[in-house]
Amino acid sequence: MTAKISYSDVEVGTELPARTFPVTRAGLVQYAGASGDFNPIHWNEKFAKEVGLPDVIAHGMFTMAEAIRVVTDWTGDPGAVVEYGVRFTKPVVVPNDDQGATIEVSAKVAAKLDDNTVRVDLTVTSAGQKVLGMSRAVVRLA
Amino acid sequence: MALDQSFVGRTYPPTDPYEVGREKIREFAEAVGDSNPAYTDPEAAKALGHPDVIAPPTFVFSITFRAAGQVVQDPQLGLDYSRVVHGDQKFAYVRPVRAGDRLTVTSTIEAIKSMAGNDILDIRGEVHDEAGEHVVTAWTKLVARAAEEA
Questions:
Q1: Does the beta-carbon distance from A65 to B87 stay under 8 Å?
Q2: Is ipTM over 0.90?
Q3: What is this structure's pTM?
Q4: Residue A106's domain is classified under what CATH number?
Q5: What residues in B contact A72, CB-CB < 8 Å?
Q6: In a domain, A1, yes or no
């Protein structure tokens, strides 16, 4: 594993480059196919509303996949991720228009650990609401 | 209805191997919009020290969640899947999943809790490769929301 960020170059509080990721209905259909998760709450508005949701919502695992890109883009090597966990706190609601929704991700180094690893805490929001809680990754740096 | 606590600690038989293909990894990476070449270009992956293209960190969920179906659909456990939402998800990696892996998953019920009428189920999936080496562990928390009052 060859992360491009050096352990000695980061400190607690170091911010990773923040990113914004788009989510559209078409993107959710594509993710359903790639992941095998065809739950209709992720593509069928009528079904989503019948089960009490405001509209179609993104797969939690889609949001989780987008959020870690802030970390893997930073390290260069996705294999540098040692641990990654999240809590799904609020759904990402995806309207049926050409804009869709956005997922905003910021991250910073929260702790320096053993063996050149650091804990990165992620803040993940959509429409001003936190959609992932306890969102943390442990990453091995160079 | 609260789930039977005696299921805590129950381990289900390992799944048949899932063979990780390069094109399946590419399809997944494209679906999440991630153009990191380690996912699609074997040479780029090798330059990072991996023997073949690797999968994005959350790719393995598709495999572990399918395996968790043994638990979720266990008629003896009696979980109401129509009311289930995904509460938490965590992964701990020994190494990244890569093309050519033949992965088996062994699922264990770690905990069953009941809170405010909700059933909360913690499932651990241990993922091993064909050589029996541990690759990744996935922890999935499922919450079956309480049935609404009629």
A1: no
A2: yes
A3: 0.96
A4: 3.10.129.10
A5: 34, 36, 56-57
A6: no
